[in-house]
């Protein structure tokens, strides 16, 4: 016989609030990432992990110690548990081994379950970190612009997912209603070559220069990190699962306005439904002769005759 | 140079400058790029120029990305602009690209048994004031919680009812009754949670049709051994490990008395001394 197990409830108001913050929300806040390193990492991968952490901050957490026995493509349970613990839904994991040197695993989670996972090899020769560029950087938490270039991003399913993945990973603050025009500080660019299948990630600082009219001219300065990645292994969510995650709550969907449509030219058209018209109550032109309760002729004429008769008698 | 030429030259220079200004922000692409302002995202579907790419990759990327960024800025500067004390702010449209949710769509909280009953009977919750008048203390106090008014656990004198057994401890009875009420409420809460998770359950809280695991049996045994309270006199005492398996029965931390024996203290000091010695030898 198995008895009901105790389920603890938060004892303090603060704990209650913290738990509420983690519950699913209608409009979600920015995804935060967890940066973990494996048992064996080289210095380059450590620097890369720190750079990813800095790119994502303040929506990022970093574990400083090394974590043995994590093999993301064999068993994700440990990583999922870490993510749940620190309430993160993005993951960056680095290792360096003889079999897979300079290994970077990026993943995203839905409801604390790993959804998409990509493994990359970093080209350590061309790698340059944020610190290697001595220039003006961006403020932490600044929303980056994202640019994708390369026909593969649209033609193959895997790379299509990769594009969506990177959008999700780096876009930062969501549901922004307005943006400070001076706050456009950095842009993260992704270029995928069709021949070598090399993914080039570059981060630039945006300079707004005077152009002589309203719209400024853009100049870009590289600020790092400077990454050349090749894809190793991938683990993508099944179509069913993916579709489920795309579901949007009914409460935030825009309500359809009935009987209003816009045509191709952008003209707003409306359809109006009227009640059946009652012709008896129709307002027409008023004429004295058509009045309903007009004093009858008989009364008037009789009075007049009486008067005439009297004058005649006299 | 006559005046006619001068005028022509100036006019020509003006036109050139205008062209230059326009060119500085103008970008022409063979295939129009897709700009999603809600996410500040640009998708450039143009084919990569292999020759330029192979010649100097970084230079090519920087140039194309500059153009793409210019297009994003051009689109952004078309949006309605507002001014909030010293900052210029552009309104952003809704994001076009739909990205997976982080967590599932929130579900409405399941109703408790009482809430369901109240709903069916049309019972509406009445708002009660937070503070009530305490007749004995002659002051206002909270209805529930810390320093609550009319606290029935506080009186130090209880009248023994005529029907009650005179030897019975009325204070213990009061305490037990309170504990019972708290436990009942907790049990009801657990039952409500189990019901919302559709766990098939008996009235006394046992889960039906669930095979008990080895851990469950061990836990049940340890609980039984603990709760017969004979402390090993009539039944076997639960092992330390077993005891720990039942939550809340863990041994409390013990502190040494302030007036400890001299012997144990000297032993302790000697042990520390030995440890220090051993480390120096290494």
Report on this model:
The complex is a heterodimer of chains A (314) and B (282). Chain A has 314 residues and is α/β, with parallel strands linked by helices. Chain A has helices spanning 13-22, 43-56, 77-85, 152-155, 157-170, 239-245, 297-313; strands spanning 2-3, 33-37, 60-66, 90-95, 103-110, 113-122, 145-149, 178-180, 186-192, 199-209, 217-235, 260-262, 268-270. Chain A has a domain at 30-239: 3-Layer(aba) Sandwich (Rossmann fold), CATH 3.40.50. Chain A is 24% helix and 28% strand. In chain A, β4 (90-95) and β5 (103-110) form a beta hairpin. The mean pLDDT of chain A is 89. Chain B is mainly α. The chains are: A alpha/beta (314), B mainly alpha (282). The interface between A and B is large, with 74 and 67 residues.
Task: Give me some keywords for this one.
heterodimer; A: 314 residues; alpha/beta; Rossmann fold; 7 helices; B: 282 residues; mainly alpha; 8 helices; 7 strands; elongated; Brix (chain A); Ribosome production factor 2 homolog (chain A); nucleus (chain A)
Short description:
The complex is a heterodimer of chains A (about 325) and B (about 280). Chain A is of the alpha/beta class and about 325 residues long.
Number of strands of chain B: 7
Shape of chain A: elongated
Q: How would a crystallographer describe the biggest sheet of chain B? A: 2 strands, antiparallel
In the CATH hierarchy, the third-tier topology of the domain at 30-239 in chain A is known as Rossmann fold
Largest sheet of chain A: 9 strands, mixed
Give the proportion of residues in helices of chain B. 40-55%
Largest interface: pair, residues per side: A-B, 74 and 67 residues
- Report the total helices of chain B: 8
Order of helix and strand elements from N to C terminus of chain A: EHEHEHEEEEHHEEEEHEEH
Average pLDDT rating of chain B: 84
Runs of chain A in which pLDDT lies below 50 for 5 or more consecutive residues are: none
What is the CATH H-level superfamily of the domain at 30-239 in chain A? Brix domain
Helical element count of chain A?
Answer: 7
Radius of gyration of chain A: 36 Å
Strands across the major sheet of chain A, in which order? 3-2-4-5-6-11-10-9-7
Which stretches of chain B of 5+ consecutive residues score pLDDT under 50? none
Termini gap of chain B:
100 Å
Q: Roughly what percent helix of chain A?
A: 10-25%
Distance between the termini of chain A: 128 Å
The CATH class of the domain at 30-239 in chain A is: Alpha Beta
